[in-house]
């Protein structure tokens, strides 16, 4: 018998990508889709690309609508998940794509999000090194999962191998990311109009203000860094989806290029969705769009004494919906790869 699924916030971008992946998942079956302003609309009115789910219509986002399913994916705005999740039974697998349960520190939550910390849940990044193991092990059998932020995923995966190997200085990390507007969601915002975006590039949340900073610090500490300091700057560029993160950090004295390549290649050798390119190559966003892959190029800037990692992901793939489904598969004891693909849709 298939596993019954509800997706809350299904009319948004993250919800839509969840539905696209779930439609091809052999074990999970979408039974209920909820929305806010779009409640009452047929699914195809919002997602005309999802024809195989054309029999569904959006209903109101309430705990009563979500209850009774085996798995509930929440793709709601920040701050909307915690209250509704608290009303769902403990035996339901709840996978939250929002930030409400990502941070382990209430002080960090208050500093970057304000009131209403939801408490932390098991973190949905299977490839993250945690102590001597991987986070994958901590996801088996859980019934609550916090899906990472999309920018966080790109930066964490880019640097974790060097941190874990003890060869980078995590107190001087610099990350600059080119990001597409779908990361900001589907709701209309003036700075996301085509007339503002096209032919343009603009930094935002500069000067250490982006809410993903404490989450990246938390991850790099989990990977083994005693202390983390990161300068993080996203730049909005005109590509519908995708993130290209350039992450640099000083290398510990005496670290060779071979040490670096060996750390990154060995960390991800067994990972289906994290790929390290041959030395000197860099990834393209268009090669990961539509996939659950993170592809990175790792080089050493010997003059600056820094490792330079360029990592591409699809913010809606490995950055949200792909990670949500990969983690849910693990929690449910299914094959981790069901419903996911390594291949993009370029050009
Ligand atoms: N976009 C991305 O790349 C990523 C998104 N996420 C997270 O996923 C979540 C959803 O993001 P995204 O899909 O981009 O956002 P969207 O704005 O595209 O979608 C938001 C969804 O929530 C619904 N909604 C809006 N307001 C409320 C409300 N007050 N109560 C209940 N439901 C509401 C919307 O319904 P309606 O449209 O019908 O009004 C819509 O279904 C966020 O927490 C985001 O941080 C995480 C990683 C990456
Ligand atoms: C372009 C743009 O605004 N991108 C968003 C991506 C946020 C995201 O997807 O992650 P969360 O789940 O933490 O919101 C941003 O940088 O805030």
Automatic annotation (TrEMBL):
UniProt entry tagged with the keyword Membrane: no
A GO CC annotation recorded here is: cytoplasm
Question: So which domain of life are we looking at?
Answer: Bacteria
What subcellular compartments does it reside in?
Answer: Cytoplasm
Reactions catalysed, as given in the entry:
N-acetyl-L-glutamate 5-semialdehyde + phosphate + NADP(+) = N-acetyl-L-glutamyl 5-phosphate + NADPH + H(+)
User: Gene3D superfamilies given for it?
Assistant: Dihydrodipicolinate Reductase, domain 2, NAD(P)-binding Rossmann-like Domain
List, in alphabetical order, the Gene Ontology terms for molecular function in this entry.
N-acetyl-gamma-glutamyl-phosphate reductase activity; NAD binding; NADP+ binding
A GO biological process of this protein is:
L-arginine biosynthetic process
Alphabetical keyword list: Amino-acid biosynthesis, Arginine biosynthesis, Cytoplasm, NADP, Oxidoreductase
According to the entry, every stretch annotated as the Semialdehyde dehydrogenase NAD-binding domain falls at: 4-136
Q: What is its EC number?
A: 1.2.1.38
Main localisation, per the record?
Answer: cytoplasm
Per the record, the pathway is: Amino-acid biosynthesis; L-arginine biosynthesis; N(2)-acetyl-L-ornithine from L-glutamate: step 3/4
Catalytic residues in the record: 150
Q: Does the keyword Metal-binding apply?
A: no
A Pfam match: Semialdhyde_dhC_1
Q: What does this protein do?
A: Catalyzes the NADPH-dependent reduction of N-acetyl-5-glutamyl phosphate to yield N-acetyl-L-glutamate 5-semialdehyde.
Q: Which family does it belong to?
A: Belongs to the NAGSA dehydrogenase family. Type 1 subfamily.
**Listed name of the protein:** N-acetyl-gamma-glutamyl-phosphate reductase
Q: What is the lineage of its organism?
A: Bacteria, Bacillati, Actinomycetota, Actinomycetes, Micrococcales
From the UniProt record, report the name of the gene that encodes this protein.
Answer: argC
């Amino acid at each position: 018998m298939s596993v019954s699924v509800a997706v809350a916030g299904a009319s948004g971008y993250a919800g839509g990508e969840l539905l696209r992946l779930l439609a091809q998942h052999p074990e999970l079956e979408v039974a209920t889709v909820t929305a806010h302003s779009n409640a009452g609309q047929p699914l195809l009115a919002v997602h005309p690309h999802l024809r195989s789910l054309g029999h569904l219509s959006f209903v109101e986002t309430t705990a009563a609508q979500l209850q009774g399913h085996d798995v509930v994916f929440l793709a709601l705005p920040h701050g909307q998940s915690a209250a509704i999740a608290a009303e769902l039974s403990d035996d339901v697998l709840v996978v939250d794509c929002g930030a409400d349960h990502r941070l382990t520190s209430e002080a960090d939550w208050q500093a970057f999000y304000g009131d209403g910390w939801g408490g932390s849940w098991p973190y949905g990044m299977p490839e993250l090194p945690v102590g001597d193991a991987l986070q994958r092990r901590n996801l088996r059998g859980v019934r609550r999962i916090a899906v990472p932020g999309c920018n966080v995923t790109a930066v964490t995966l880019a640097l974790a191998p060097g941190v874990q190997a003890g060869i980078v200085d995590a107190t001087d990390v610099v990350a600059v990311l080119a990001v597409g507007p779908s990361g900001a969601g589907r709701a209309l915002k003036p700075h996301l109009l085509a007339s503002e975006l096209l032919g343009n590039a603009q930094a935002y949340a500069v000067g250490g203000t982006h809410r993903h900073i404490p989450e990246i610090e938390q991850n790099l500490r989990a990977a083994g860094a005693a202390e983390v300091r990161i300068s993080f700057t996203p730049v909005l560029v005109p590509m519908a989806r995708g993130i290209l993160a350039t992450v640099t950090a000083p290398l510990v004295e005496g670290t060779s290029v071979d040490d670096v390549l060996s750390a990154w290649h060995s960390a991800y050798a067994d990972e289906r969705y994290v790929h390290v390119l041959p030395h000197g190559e860099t990834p393209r966003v268009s090669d990961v769009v539509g996939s659950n892959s993170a592809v990175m190029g790792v080089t050493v800037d010997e003059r600056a004494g820094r490792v330079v990692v360029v990592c591409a992901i699809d913010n809606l793939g490995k950055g949200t919906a792909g990670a949500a489904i990969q983690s849910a598969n693990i929690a449910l004891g299914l094959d981790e790869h069901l419903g996911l693909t390594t291949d993009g849709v370029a050009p």
